[in-house]
């Protein structure tokens, strides 16, 4: 290989590597940009705060995964998806009442769905974790991740609060 060919190869290798790095950086930005938004609860101030080890001891592994690590339970796995009694759905992390059974509907998605939360019950933030923008819903008191809200729900709001059942506890009406 001559010196000129070596210089061309080096330039080509550099440009190829730089292009691959750029593509990897863009992929990482799309894939993980929502992580900082989705994990913003760790940096926000909430009324109820616990250390990570305290949350682990207070919650079941499934609750911990969803509430503290923004996991998602398998669709159609929660008994709360089929809960039809009158009552209130509360945060499994701090017991704050979140949704009335009067706003629950069968969305067919496999997760408990509601068209409206109770007043001052939830907070929302942008979530880009799947390379698209979604609106993440969390408990306003402890910051626990509950699910997402979409604009394909029924009247009167047109919203679908698609919640992880494991993040909720049901309290039947007395």
Shape call: globular
CATH topology of the largest domain: Metal Binding Protein, Guanine Nucleotide Exchange Factor, Chain A
The main β sheet shows up as:
6 strands, antiparallel
Please estimate the helix content.
25-40%
CATH class descriptor of the largest domain: Mainly Beta
Low-confidence regions: 22-41
The DSSP helix count reads 3
**Distance separating the two termini:** 86 Å
Annotated CATH architecture of the largest domain: Beta Complex
Query: What pattern of helices and strands is seen along the backbone?
Result: HHHEEEEEEEEE
Which structural class is indicated by helix and strand composition?
alpha+beta
CATH superfamily of the largest domain: Peptide methionine sulfoxide reductase
The averaged pLDDT comes out at 83
Over all CA atoms, what is the radius of gyration? 22 Å
Strand order of the largest sheet: 3-4-8-7-6-5
Number of domains: 2
Number of strands: 9
Strand fraction: 15-25%
